C-alpha cells in the first residue's frame, strides 16, 4: 500500500469523527456570527500538534490528506460545515518539531504568500522542550521576541490579518512532562505567549485551561498519553475551544 493510500485510509477513517465534531461543535441553534466575510482564507501554523501527521505533498486547501488527523481537521470541518455560505479556504502548514524561529524561516512561502485573512498559531512547546533535552539553547526571552517579530512582520505585509494565538500547553500527568521543570518553568512561556497576544490584540485560545478542565473528567492518558500530543478526544476539545475563539473574532 502506498503512502498516499495509507493516508487516505487513515483520514477516511476519521471522517465520522470529523463530521461529529463539525455538528457537535455547533449543535445548538445559536445564531451564526454575523460578520464572517463572503470569502475567507484561514491558515493554521505550528508544530507537531498542528501538523498531526499531515501529508506535506498534498498542499490543496480543504483536503483531508493535507489537514492531518488532529484539531485542525476537526476545526476545519466545523468551519466548512458551519459556514457553507462563505467561500472558505483552510490550510494547514504545521511542521513537527518547529520552534518559532523555524516558523520564521518558512513564513514567506507558507504564510504570507497564501494571503490569509486569519492566521492561527500554536507554537512554544518545542521552544521549551528542546531546551530541556539539549537540542536548543533558546530562552523564554528569545521565544517572546521571536514571536513578537513574527507577528509584526506579518502585520507589516498583511495589515488587515486577524491572528489567533493558541496557548502552548501540557496535559498534566503525561509521561513526557514528568520533569518538574515543566511545572516550574514552562508557565513563563505561556505567560510570554499571552503577553504577545495582548500586545497584538489577537484571539486567544486557552488550551491549558481546556486540558486542566478535561482532567477533571478523565485521566491524562485519555486526552493525550505523553502529555504533549493530544488524542482524538483531546483534539476535539481543542477544536471546540478554537471555534469559540474564532467566533469572537467577528
From TrEMBL:
Keywords for this protein: Signal
Ranges for domain SGNH hydrolase-type esterase: 46-234
* Name of the protein: Lysophospholipase L1-like esterase
InterPro entries, alphabetized: Ester_Hydrolysis_Enzymes, SGNH_hydro, SGNH_hydro_sf, TAT_signal
Which residues constitute the signal peptide according to the record? 1-20
A Pfam family for this UniProt protein? Answer: Lipase_GDSL_2
SUPFAM superfamilies linked: SGNH hydrolase
Keyword Signal listed? yes
Q: Which GO terms describe its molecular function?
A: phosphatidylcholine lysophospholipase activity
Record flagged with keyword Signal: yes
Classification lineage: Bacteria, Pseudomonadati, Bacteroidota, Saprospiria, Saprospirales
Give the PROSITE patterns listed for this entry: TAT
Query: What Gene3D superfamilies has UniProt attached to this entry?
Result: SGNH hydrolase
Amino acid at each position: 500500500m502506498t503512502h498516499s493510500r495509507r493516508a487516505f485510509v487513515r483520514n477516511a477513517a476519521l471522517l465520522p469523527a470529523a463530521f461529529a465534531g463539525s455538528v457537535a461543535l455547533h449543535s445548538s441553534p445559536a445564531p451564526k456570527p454575523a460578520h464572517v466575510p463572503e470569502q475567507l482564507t484561514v491558515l493554521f501554523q505550528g508544530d507537531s500538534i498542528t501538523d498531526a501527521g499531515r501529508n506535506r505533498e498534498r498542499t490543496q486547501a480543504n483536503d483531508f490528506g493535507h489537514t492531518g488527523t488532529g484539531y485542525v481537521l476537526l476545526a476545519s470541518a466545523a468551519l466548512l460545515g458551519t459556514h457553507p455560505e462563505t467561500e472558505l479556504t483552510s490550510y494547514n502548514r504545521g511542521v513537527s518539531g518547529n520552534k518559532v524561529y523555524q516558523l520564521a524561516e518558512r513564513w514567506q512561502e507558507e504564510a504570507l504568500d497564501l494571503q490569509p485573512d486569519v492566521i492561527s498559531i500554536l507554537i512554544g512547546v518545542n521552544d521549551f522542550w528542546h531546551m530541556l533535552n539539549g537540542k536548543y539553547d533558546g530562552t523564554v526571552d528569545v521565544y517572546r521576541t521571536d514571536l513578537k517579530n513574527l507577528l509584526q512582520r506579518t502585520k507589516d505585509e498583511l495589515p488587515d490579518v486577524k491572528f489567533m494565538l493558541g496557548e502552548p500547553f501540557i496535559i498534566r500527568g503525561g509521561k513526557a512532562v514528568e520533569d518538574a521543570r515543566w511545572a516550574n518553568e514552562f508557565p513563563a512561556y505561556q505567560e510570554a505567549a499571552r503577553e504577545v497576544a495582548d500586545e497584538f490584540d489577537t484571539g486567544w485560545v486557552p488550551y491549558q485551561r481546556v486540558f486542566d478542565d478535561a482532567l477533571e473528567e478523565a485521566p491524562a492518558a485519555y486526552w493525550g498519553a505523553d502529555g504533549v500530543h493530544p488524542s482524538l478526544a483531546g483534539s476535539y476539545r481543542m477544536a471546540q475551544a478554537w471555534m469559540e475563539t474564532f467566533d469572537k473574532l467577528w
